[in-house]
Amino acid sequence: MIKRQASHSSQSKGWMQSLGSFGPETSGFDVYDSVTSKVNLFGGKVTMRQVKIKDTQALQIILEHFSHLDDIRWSQSGNYNLINYYKRGLTADEKLLTHWLCYIVDRQMPFMRIWDLGGYVLSSLVHDFQTKRAKDVRSILEEHINDRDKEGKLRFSLIAPSKGKNKRLQKYESYNQDGVVSFASRYIPEDLLLIYRTFLLLDKISKRSFIGYFIKAIEGIDPKADDYHYKSILRMADSLDKLTYVSGGAIRAQNLRRKMKKIESEAATFTVDFKEAQGLYTRKRLWCSLRDFLKSPEFNREFVKALREEAYPHSRLWNRSNQHLKRSLHALELPGDVWNNSEVFRKGLFDPYIEGVPRTWDMPKTVRGIFHSLDREDKLDFHPEQLDVTFDFVPRMCERNMCDVCLFGKGILLTCHKKKGTLCSVTLLACGYKHPCLPSECYFKDDKGKELCKSMG
Predict the structure, then answer these.
(1) Which H or E element spans position 370?
(2) Going by C-beta distance under 8 Å and a sequence separation of 6 or more, which residues neighbour residue 62?
(3) E strand or H helix that includes residue 195
(4) What is the pTM of this model?
(5) What percent of the chain has pLDDT over 70?
């Protein structure tokens, strides 16, 4: 495991540690009663509500178990979802922008439908956006919009030409091998507006380059500084929020094109003013996408390649193997969802080890507070975003009452086979992650998490 990068300069580390370890969080951590204000090196005061820990050792074991599961998750591409691009040969920048758009539309829909069907259609749209530069943004988007259903009613969808047989599309009703492929997200009018804003700003600020927009966001941050990656990650988060989500909000289908006119006016006056992100706890998909760029074997490769192709001189610093980058991943927030906010998960692994239960449970804020309380001496092998493995863990373990074979229940004795050359049965059962069994190197072999969960049936 990699120790985290401090969010402050090494010269200031001594007095910062005397205050306690904290980052540039300025949003109210409003689920606890006690408020602590501290000076922030980036300017102003930091207002945080501290989480008091009753059992530091138990909570540290729990979090570090999830940290190791997360490391295994990102160790190979078979453990997460890949996009179904509409054709081979897309540029690295086109792949990254497609990835971002997939997360924009990923709301209350089966995630495989997003990556299979949405990825196909959106990658076609992105390719046209970045290659047909003589056309204005509005025209390109309109070419990919169908605004009528089979009965002639006003109902929007995005379309792309079919490129022949595609195995991942064949199970969907909107797949048409001889004509077009259609995709409609659950909140399609709003999503079209968010995509339109994204395209308009990229067109204005970075000549339609997605990675070029990121480079603009981190301009002025010294790549030799200890906090280069930390500050850059927060700037990137702020830039994504301003690129897309500022214009969010439910709209009616009949109002879409009127709203598009308003977006055009806003984009025309948009000025670049990027800061370190503060308190973007609710931007689940923003953190998911940025996390993938930094940690995923597939997308980090494209991220570094796109930086290099854009002639960014420090592209190599963003390789996922870079130790300084790894130590700065605590800048990422946890993408909150129903799984890490699960009541049985919370009551089993968190409530027993903290003082006072929050009035309103919000895992992204809570785990950030826990992180700051536990990580006062930079010794915790965990960062808040890593708890996102609950997306795979909670449905398989907690929701199915698999306490008899759970890492935190009755332990791994019944499932761990310790057979080198096979897949690890513990991670496969717990999260569905494929990982080689390495008995002598296994973090879980000591069964340290056994019976730490107090929700056991």
Answers:
(1) helix 363-374
(2) 349, 353, 408, 449, 452
(3) helix 188-205
(4) 0.86
(5) 85
